[in-house]
Amino acid sequence: MSELQLGKLESIHPTSPVYLQRAAILAVLSFGFFLAMLVAFSFWRNFIYFLLSTAFLIVQLFTLFGWFTQRNTQVKVYENGFKYKKQTLLWDEIESIAVKDENQKSGCEIKKQTGGKVVLTEAIQGIDTIIGRIKTEIARR
User: What is the mean pLDDT of residues 101-116?
Assistant: First the structure.
């Protein structure tokens, strides 16, 4: 589906900086604990410190992997639909939307008429605006 069918670009919603910042802080802290456990292992030669340092290294690697994969994730809202990752949906292709929690900013599950689904997480900046736009477009039909 081309961007010509989607119409004019109205807004871009990237990953929220709060989530990227949390991941960066977690990566720095886990690296600090990794180094501290390696120093403790070199002083006391207790195998538990080596296991702890390995665990903190694994936490850091998974955090960095998640951070790198999510930092370029964005939702592009057009006048006739939206794009999220590799999926493109026109407003007419959306069957329903289920919001996880109406009171808080949370993610949603969008069901397509073809049977598939798209899940938008709360890590997207302005998710409440996107949900509101989708509900408006569904109500228009």
Answer: 83
Which of the four pLDDT bands, split at 50, 70 and 90, describes residue 2? low
Torsion over CA of 68, 69, 71 and 75, rounded to 10 degrees?
170
Q: Is 133 left (phi over 0), alpha (psi -120 to 50) or beta?
A: alpha
- Give the pLDDT score at 71: 82
Output the pTM of the full model.
0.82
Cβ contact 17:134 at 8 Å: no
Cβ atoms of residues 90 and 5 within 8 Å:
yes
**CA dihedral (61, 62, 66, 67) positive or negative:** negative
58 CB-near residues (< 8 Å, 6+ apart): none
| Nearest Cα residue to 134 out of 106, 100, 99 | 99
